[in-house]
Every structure is written in C-alpha cells, then in structure tokens.
# Entry
Amino acid sequence: MPTKRTYADLGDACATAHGLDIVGDRWNLVVVRELLLGPRRFADLLSAVIGISPGVLTARLRELQDAGVVEQVTLDDLARTRAYRVTPWGAGLEDVMRALGRWAHGSPSFPVPGTGMTPDAVIVAMRTMVPTEGVRADRPLTATWELHDERRPAAGVRRYRLLWEGRCFDLAEGSLESPDVTVRGDSTAWTGAVFLGVPLDELERSGALAVEGDRDALARVVAVFAPAAGELSPGARVVGGRSAQTATSTPGARPSPTARPRS
# Structure
C-alpha cells in the first residue's frame, strides 16, 4: 500500500491544510461527533457510525489518537471498560462542526433524502443550531430526552438533559430529577419535531415519541430552532423514524426530500 502523503509533505504550511491532514479523511469527523458528548466504547462507535467496518474504525481511532484529538480511557465501572473520548483540544472541533454544518446547510444537495440521525447526532445538531446571538429563557426550564435509534435497536437508549436559564442553554448528556418535561422515543423522529416542524401530536400518535410533563415547556424548546426549521424544505417530513415525503402546497411543486440537520 502506498504511503499516505500529507499536505505538509507537499510543502503546504497552511494551518487549514494541516487540520485536513488530521480530520480530513472519511469518517474522522463523524467519529469525533459521536464522542463530543462523552466517552464511548468501541462497540458504541461501531453501531453509531453507520457503514464503518471494525478495521477502518480501529485505524481512524488510532490516527485520531496519534494526532492528539482522541484518547483512550477506562470507565469507572465494575468491568473497568475501555472507551474513547475527545481530548480538551479535540473538543474544539465542535466549533469547526458548527461552522461546517451551517455552511453545508446552503448546499444545493441538502437535505439528503432517506437519512436519519443517531441520538448523539441530533443533540449535537441542536447545540450547533442554537442561534448564535443566544436565546433567553423568560423563566428557568429543564428538560430530558431518552432517545434510541430505531435503525440500531441494539445500541440502547441515550439520555440527555437541558438546563436553560437566562441566556445559558446548557444541553449535554445526562439526566435530571423531576424535569419540567421528558421526551422518549426515536432520535430521527425527534429530528422531525425539532428541525422539520413535524407536529408532536402526530409523532405521538404514530408511537415514535412520547412526551411526559409540561408540553408548553417543550414548545418553548422547539421554538428555539424555528429559524433553522424555516430554512429547511417545507415538504420534508420524518415520522416514526421513517422518512415520508409530502408535496408542498405550491402548484406544480415537486415533493421535497427528507431533511437532516447538520451536525
């Protein structure tokens, strides 16, 4: 196999080129995306990064470790499980993904039909798409999500929590006691609710989502992302983890593809 030559090997001193040497290969940023919210086992990553093979994942993790983006850790459990997490420097890639995702949103090929979101991916997308000028809560709000990926049921449920007070919109992995509202269900269905404007009652009737608690509080959370939803195709719909196309009301308009926010 020929030796991979970097941009630096070709004499390019640009920092952006160096960054591409680190994360420019296929899968690298997707692997990092799945690590931004907390440590993950190899099996977790293999399930979440759909389409990657064990050999390629091993190689990508080794490259990211060598570059200082990812490190291996031992979880504090009885089995002393080995896992991977982003380093403090590697965590800075969330800002890169935020800019890249907003840029990709303008692509003529986006949204991509027939796609879905892992639980981590939709939560990272929410963090990405919080308005850059910030959002203000008129009163404190707490929320939790218990999401699974219908496409990968063996991956289990991931839990996330939101602490929103003033301009602090703190969305992360974890759980809360007695939140104002809890959402349970498929991660792609939640993508439909938060980014595509699919009515929550429609998703509840389909069995894709269940809402427990203050529905007005959840409506306030969804409203934060209304600008992003408004930029996406009005015909895009995701129901119960499966994509469905609906025609727009414009005469002669073609059905729009299922949309997926960037992450």
Q: What stands out?
A: Residues 148 and 186 are 5 Å apart (CA to CA). The first strand starts at residue 70 and ends at 74.
